[in-house]
Amino acid sequence: MRVLLTGAAGQLGQALRQRLPEGVELIATSRSGANSGGTGGGGGGDGLLALDLADAGACRAAVREHRPDWVLNAGAYTAVDRAESEPELALAVNGGAPRAFAEALAETGGRLLQVSTDFVFDGRQGSPYRPEQPRRPLGVYGASKAAGEEEVEEVLGGSGRGVILRTSWVMGPVGKNFALTMLRLHRERGAAGPALGVVADQVGCPTSTLTLAAACWRLITHADARAAADPLPPVLHWSDAGAASWYDVAVAVGDLGLELGLLEQAAPVNPITTADYPLPAPRPSYSLLACGATRQLLGLDPLHWRTALREVLRQVLAAVG
Q1: For the chain, what is the domain count?
Q2: pLDDT tens digit sequence for 35-57
Q3: Which tens digits make up the pLDDT trace of 213-259?
Q4: Are residues 87 and 15 in the same domain?
Q5: Residue 132 CB: number of other CB atoms within 10 A?
Q6: Crossing angle, helix 305-320 and helix 178-189, to 10 degrees?
Q7: Which end of the chain is more exposed for a tag (fewer CB within 10 A), N or C?
Q8: 212 and 253 share one domain
């Protein structure tokens, strides 16, 4: 099986590369190709092919040249706040690239796994979102990801060859993410610095890149084993288990950092409200995803987010030790 992977130098892309199943020929791409340095280890951009997701023509050409069985589109414009001032770029990457891949795959016969986000929902219903519920994004980032989903559905809908996998609050041992930021701030403020003020009125579920990568590969291999007349559902949800606020995650990073020896002292963490920490982009206040159907379909047991976070931090320890 041949898989074209986008975003291979990112935190999810590196996890996907490290967990490559046997029998998969990977065509790994990133925006800058072989010259794109990694952030924090795990392979970086070494040996990657250059593919700019903002260039729809390049995305189509990559599919026509390599003729993959799957495109695993793990790359994205993820700067949530900067997207408010760069809407065209966010839409080109998050909306234009999925359409270009889908159109080219419609010609070549391959399939697309489009990684998406809980930010396609507005967070106002107060209960976990099911895959079939309507999209109501709040900001530019969420709208651009919703547009990407719509493009995939428009081009590949009904064919069984386009699958959207939504996830939430992605955190891994490399790259830029909330867990690593909190770990750094605990180190900086643990001894004598001021307390950390962290938002406590936004609820979702952290998702480890390690478990998300496993779900992506299981989805692809499972889909290949199914009969053509029995395709996967067009939209699936995946996150780790449980629920948390950003405040809960910040406290857990401190606790687990102490337990693993990554921290000598954790900083105090104070809960604050979204209004106390205004940002350019609005966030959903409640974005839990209903993942039970996906877990049953793929045969994957749920891992509580705190357990998954511990493994992420354990890998951070291994990398620095």
Answers
A1: 2
A2: 443 333 333 445 799 999 999 99
A3: 999 999 999 887 776 667 889 999 999 999 999 999 999 999 999 99
A4: yes
A5: 9
A6: 60
A7: C
A8: no
141 flagged as catalytic: yes
Do 46 and 21 share a domain, yes or no? yes
Q: What is the mean pLDDT of the chain?
A: 93
The domain that holds 63 is classified in CATH as 3.40.50.720
- Given a cut of 80, whether residue 34 has pLDDT beyond it is no
Structural domain including 311 reads 176-204+241-287+302-320
Q: Which two tokens stand for residue 142?
A: 């969420």
Q: How far is CA 80 from CA 57, 90, 278, in A?
A: 25, 9, 13
Closest CA to 10 of 50, 49, 38, 41: 38
Q: Rounded to two decimals, what is the model's pTM?
A: 0.93
Hunting for tokens 């867990």 — which residue is that? 179
CA distance 130 to 118: 11
Q: Are 43 and 87 in contact (CB under 8 A)?
A: no
Query: 287 φ, ψ to 5°?
Result: -130, 35
Same domain, 15 and 53: yes
The stretches of the chain forming alpha helices (DSSP H) are 11-18, 56-66, 87-91, 97-108, 140-156, 178-189, 209-225, 246-260, 292-298, 305-320
Are 278 and 189 part of one and the same domain?
A: yes
Q: How far apart are CA 312 and CA 316, in angstroms?
A: 6
Query: Rounded to 5 degrees, what are φ and ψ at 147?
Result: -60, -40
Q: 182 and 57, same structural domain?
A: no
Catalytic residue among 141, 247, 277, 286: 141
